[in-house]
Amino acid sequence: MPPTPATAIAVDDLVVDRGGQPVLRSVSTRIAAGSVTGLLGPSGSGKTTFIRAVVGTQKVRSGTVEVLGHPAGSKPLRSRVAYVTQDASIYRDLSVKANVAYFAALYGRSRSEAMAAIERVGMGDHAHNLAGNLSGGQKTRTSLACALVIEPEVLVLDEPTVGLDPVIREELWDQFRALAKQGATLLVSSHVMDEADRCDRLLLLREGRFIADDTPADLRAATGTANLEAAFLHLIRELEKAN
């Protein structure tokens, strides 16, 4: 029997309210180290709230979130966890190189490591361009370079491919798979169901609850469907019948 993968992220009975209304309703999961986990669901389902809880920037009502054996957001995780937000977290008046070099310096990394991160995301030819003049896809890749320069053990990405053309999306997912192969743990949120098959495991979130936590293949088998969009719809209909 193969060894059980180590747990990188452990969430137990997580409850989050906003404005007095529940956003996450007692959700629990385990995310294996060295895997790509997709967090999928419609807008407003609680994806960003869940991600913020994992990186430790979300106030929670109850429950626990541990990352690499430490409470989410705690000091030991600062150089081990990277978070790429939905909107590019870069300085518009700095060049690509200056942006990544700045984040590299914060974590004691060198300028050569910054350039290596830029090349890694295919932005070498744009290193001297101002971030404010970049396209949406280039800004996303620059944000990713800022995260990769610290060589994180856990990389959390909030809808990193939204609004991007299919070629850039394909390139980014190739990067994500390569990172996981090297041992990093990725949590990637999306509302695009055709990205789900690229993940090792899926968390399907609806109205603050997980309605599935399974591999793509097992999810299709369990619902008797041919694709993951159909599987998601099947689960929603079954949930509506139960209620």
UniProtKB/TrEMBL annotation:
PROSITE patterns xrefs: ABC_TRANSPORTER_2 (PS50893)
InterPro entries: AAA+_ATPase, ABC_transporter-like_ATP-bd, P-loop_NTPase
Organism superkingdom: Bacteria
Entries under CDD domains matching the protein: ABC_DR_subfamily_A (cd03230)
Protein name, UniProt field: Multidrug ABC transporter ATP-binding protein
Span of domain ABC transporter: 9-232
Keywords for this protein: ATP-binding, Nucleotide-binding
Transmembrane segments: none
Pfam family, one: ABC_tran
SMART domains: AAA (SM00382)
An example Gene Ontology molecular-function term: ATP hydrolysis activity
Cited Gene3D superfamilies: P-loop containing nucleotide triphosphate hydrolases
